[in-house]
């Protein structure tokens, strides 16, 4: 059974750096063609794809946020860490991590709401 | 970058009616790597359709995905009360794997 759970701060101040951790079970990020993606959703708005880290360390980022995002993985801990710099109130959203088969998002975490406010 | 446009924004229908949701891509989606997700209030999205027409585990056969290239459709043949939700399409052929803006299917 594949499960994922996001953890991190619920409130960050503008200009701060957000660090979110995705802890997962039921799969390994060293398995061929497996990845972990991050997706966010501002309140009442649509889903936005942010980034993907792949089993072979191939990373892909949204071109709109590429300069602010970093993805790392710790295969031994079954964790992926998303870092987003220079947070702004428009970054207020529920952040999801998700398992991918190839690049298909097939299992989602429950999401974590991050509010950016002073 | 492939941009996905979903229409309509909102679909108001009654249980038992047929729902037809559209997703158009700004360029051809390679290998028809197009997925649909269902999202209910307060929940994470769930994978519904992948590879444009393959149904994910747990969804009944009233959900039908079709299309290829740049035009894709999700059809719900007869709406059940639990089908009222927001539906998103997403392409996963090339990065960034963008989502459409969603179609809300609401009870009329």
Description:
The complex is a heterodimer of chains A (118) and B (108). Chain A has strands at residues 3-7, 11-12, 18-25, 34-41, 48-54, 59-61, 69-74, 79-84, 93-101, 104-108, 112-116. Chain A is an all-beta fold. In chain A, the strands form two sheets. In chain A, strands 2, 4, 5, 6, 9, 10 and 11 form a seven-stranded mixed beta sheet that branches. A four-stranded antiparallel beta sheet of chain A has the order 1-3-8-7, with no helix packed on it. In chain A, strand 9 (93-101) and strand 10 (104-108) form a beta hairpin. Chain B is mostly beta strands and 108 residues long. In chain B, a hairpin with a 3-residue loop joins strand 5 (46-50) and strand 6. The relative contact order of chain B is 0.34. The model of chain B has no long low-confidence stretch (mean pLDDT 97). At the A-B interface, strand 5 and strand 10 of A face strand 4 and strand 5 of B.
Assembly type of the shown chains?
Answer: heterodimer
Radius of gyration of chain B: 13 Å
Beta-strand segment tally of chain A: 11
User: Which structural class should the secondary elements of chain A be placed in?
Assistant: mainly beta
Helix content of chain A: under 10%
Overall geometry of chain B comes to globular
Q: Note the overall shape of chain A.
A: globular
Question: How much strand content do the residues of chain B show?
Answer: over 45%
Mean pLDDT of chain A, to the nearest integer, reads: 96
The helix-and-strand class of chain B reads mainly beta
Head-to-tail CA distance between termini of chain A:
39 Å
> Biggest sheet of chain B, in brief?
6 strands, mixed
Query: What's the mean pLDDT score of chain B?
Result: 97
